[in-house]
Write a sequence for this structure.
């Protein structure tokens, strides 16, 4: 009898590990992308001294003038109403022009590199 094995593979960098919990950003991205006025969203693991990583949403809006604390709080509240709190972004950053690859897709690796560099400048967040 022939047995087949199926292996799932994906981008390891897409997985966020926060306090030992695996969080898949796609679930959060799908939810935030349906919010009115959100043009594009990337959810990444930003460095966190206590948990290793924390969920960070990087959002591009149709109208950048709407960006602000009130909208960030609404986006986080939307997540908390629909998914487990540990999967929800701890903060939302609004960007006018996120980095994109040649095909026009949001370039998550570049965003993650930027957050890692910012954390390296803060000793309390840098990864050892």
């Amino acid at each position: 009898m022939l047995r087949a094995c199926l292996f799932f593979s994906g981008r390891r960098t897409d997985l966020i590990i926060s306090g030992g919990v695996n969080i898949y950003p796609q679930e959060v991205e799908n939810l935030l992308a349906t919010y009115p006025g959100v043009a594009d969203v990337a959810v990444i693991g930003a460095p966190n001294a206590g948990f290793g990583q924390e969920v960070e949403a990087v959002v591009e809006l149709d109208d950048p003038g709407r960006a602000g604390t009130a909208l960030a709080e609404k986006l986080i509240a939307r997540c908390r109403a629909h998914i487990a709190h540990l999967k929800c972004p701890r903060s939302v950053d609004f960007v006018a022009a996120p980095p994109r690859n040649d095909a026009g897709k949001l370039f998550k690796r570049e965003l993650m590199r930027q957050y890692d560099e910012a954390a390296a400048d803060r000793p309390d967040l840098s990864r050892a």
